[in-house]
Design brief:
The complex is a heterodimer of chains A (about 140) and B (about 170). Chain A is an alpha+beta fold. Chain A has two domains: about 1-40; about 50-140, Sandwich (mini-chromosome maintenance (MCM) complex, domain 2), CATH 2.60.320. In chain A, about 25% of the residues lie in helices and about 30% in strands. In chain A, the strands form two sheets. Chain A has a four-stranded antiparallel beta sheet with strand order 2-1-7-6. A three-stranded antiparallel beta sheet of chain A has the order 3-4-5. The longest helix of chain A has 22 residues, at about 20-40. With about 170 residues, chain B is an all-alpha fold. The longest helix of chain B has 26 residues, at about 135-160. The chains are: A alpha+beta (about 140), B mainly alpha (about 170). Chains A and B meet through α1 and α2 of A and α5 and α6 of B.
Chain lengths: ~140, ~170
């Protein structure tokens, strides 16, 4: 057994015994992660969205017009586990509070670009920014 | 005699996987993300793949995830973990066969962890039918890098230590 341990150490070598293909594999996963992130946050569209659509369980419960000069306003929505508080200010929107365990939605921060979204899966609350002011079906296809 | 040995090793690897998944379930969640697990049980699969070949890896995975699902007693959990484990094992086997010389088990297990998370998310999508689920994809992919690396290094440690022993099987 001691011999085997010695072997393992020798085998480790430079860069913890990683091979080129291993590094390529890790980079591939990293690229996939960044790729999906870029795709989902919709950084391709640089237009500021005009409307925040709030959905609970897939159903639209509220549409908030995002104006540049809008004052700080909070909206309360009842989700699956409790109340989510959504805050709108100066054309941006974020999740202020949420009745979920992981608080990822709160951590997602402010969104203001068309195609971006704040998602709270546990509470089934989604805030989506759309480019148009009427929130027609066409703007939701990007998903 | 050969068969008996093989069955014994299979049983051993399945129980290693089961125990690892039980140990893992006692840990506090790594990240507040559904599905972001360390995937310790995958160590058993990687060991099986590198010491006994693709068939053993497949058998270990199928038996381990079925048993773990039954022990946990949740049908949905069984469906999610079984689909993820099965597809990721198939991908790992493919990588192992194709890049046998070029890629070590570190890379194989990292890709395996990523596939596991992606497939699990797709399976969850089939159940929940909520597009919002896909917003978790980047986070799940990102977390699969450290977990996959950890599993890879742990498996290599075990395999290199066991290499000196004569394990005749298959």
């Amino acid at each position: 057994m001691l011999l085997a341990v010695g072997d393992a150490k020798k085998r480790g070598g430079r860069f913890w015994g990683l091979r080129v293909a291993d590094v390529v594999a890790v980079c591939l996963v990293l690229v996939a992660a960044v790729g999906t992130m870029v795709f989902l946050t919709g950084s391709r569209s640089s237009t500021r969205g005009g409307l925040a659509v709030i959905e609970v369980n897939g159903r639209v419960v509220n549409r908030i017009v995002l104006g540049e000069d809008a004052k700080k306003t909070t909206y309360k929505v009842k989700g699956r586990n409790g109340v989510s508080v959504i805050e709108v200010q100066g054309g941006k929107v974020h999740m202020l509070e949420s009745a979920c365990r992981d608080q990822i939605c709160v951590g997602m921060g402010w969104v203001d670009r068309a195609g971006q979204a704040v998602v709270c899966l546990p509470n089934r609350v989604v805030i989506r920014i759309t480019g148009s002011r009427n929130g027609s079906k066409v703007d939701t296809v990007t998903e | 005699m050969r068969d008996t040995r093989r069955v014994t090793y299979l049983a051993l690897l399945v129980s290693v996987g089961l125990v690892l998944s039980i140990i893992e379930s006692t840990f506090p969640p790594l990240l507040p993300l559904p599905g972001a697990k360390l995937g310790l049980a995958n160590i058993a699969t990687v060991i099986a793949l590198y010491m006994f070949g693709p068939w053993m890896a497949l058998e270990v995975t199928v038996l381990r995830s079925l048993l773990a699902g039954i022990l946990r007693g949740s049908v949905i959990g069984l469906f999610l973990s079984f689909s993820g484990a099965l597809v990721s094992t198939l991908v790992m086997i493919a990588l192992y066969v194709v890049f046998k010389k070029k890629m070590s088990m570190i890379g194989v297990s990292t890709i395996g962890a990523a596939t596991h998370n992606v497939v699990q998310l797709l399976a969850a999508f089939l159940l929940i039918q909520h597009v919002a689920l896909f917003y978790y994809m980047p986070y799940l992919l990102l977390i699969s890098i450290p977990t996959g690396l950890f599993v890879g290094f742990a498996s290599r440690r075990v395999v290199t230590s066991l290499e000196g022993l004569s394990l005749e099987a298959v």
